[in-house]
Amino acid sequence: MGELVERVDEHDQVIGVVDRAEAIRQGWLHRIATVACRDEAGRFFVHRRAYDMSRFPGQYNWLVGGAADPGESYQQAAARELAEELGVHAVPRPVLTFLCAGAISPYWLGIHEAVVTTPIRPCPREIAWHAWLTEPELLDLVAHPDFVPDARTAFTHYQSLRRPPHA
Fold first, then answer.
1. Residue 46 CA: distances (Å) to CA of 1, 9, 32, 61, 165
2. What is the Cα–Cα distance from 23 to 127, expressed in whole angstroms?
3. pLDDT in tens, 3-20
4. Beta bridge pairs of residue 127
5. For the chain, how far is it from start to end, CA to CA, in angstroms?
6. What angle separates helix 149-162 from helix 135-142, to the nearest 10 degrees?
7. pLDDT tens digits for range 50-68
8. Which residues pair with 4 in a beta bridge?
9. Residue 74 and residue 31: Cα distance in Å, rounded?
10. How would you label 127-166 residue by residue, b for 16+ Cβ within 10 Å and e otherwise?
11. DSSP-based three-state secondary structure for 21
12. 4-162: which CATH number, 3.90.79.10, 3.30.70.920, 2.40.30.60, 3.30.70.240?
């Protein structure tokens, strides 16, 4: 058996532990935790996924993250992924969780934020390129055809929380 994840229902309640590849094949809901990293100037960490990744190789993303392990909260998974992918040890702040249709299969997506004040050490197995972009630069990149589609959806949800309601 490969990577284990908690299978959850439409209310994000755990109903069992399954192999992640099987969850994806069957379209079973599971949990993904991500972190939007910003520097002290407010710029976003953006990266290009390694070219040999199994999902979305070589595509741009503004989030780091991955599947939550069984028994792990979204926030714990986000902190673990932040340390694994960027070598940053921090407690990410939860921002939102939503049911993502997913380009490959559906899942619950937890988005967190962290302000990174220490040097990063991107994992070369996961990250081929990175930069810190301003919000307008990120907005331009989100429209790029090589942007991870689920990350584009996540950015739309994230942006909707930050926009004032229309009068």
1. 32, 31, 18, 6, 27
2. 25
3. 999 999 999 999 999 999
4. 49
5. 53
6. 140
7. 999 999 999 999 999 999 9
8. 19
9. 8
10. bbebebbeeeebeebbeeeebbebbbbbbeebeeeeeeee
11. helix
12. 3.90.79.10
> CA–CA separation, 64 vs 36, rounded Å?
7
Instruction: Write out the two tokens for 88.
Output: 């940053």
117, 28 Cβ separation under 8 angstroms: no
| 154: three-class secondary structure by DSSP | helix
Q: Name, in order, each residue with C-beta under 8 angstroms of 123's C-beta and a sequence gap of 6 or more.
A: 84, 85, 86, 87
Q: For residue 4, what are the CA distances in angstroms to 7, 69, 71, 115?
A: 9, 7, 11, 29
Residue where the block lists tokens 């953006």: 46
Q: Which residue's structure tokens are 């919000």?
A: 135
pLDDT (0 to 100) of residue 165 = 54
Q: Which of 17, 13, 63 is nearest to 36 (CA)?
A: 63
pTM for the whole structure: 0.94
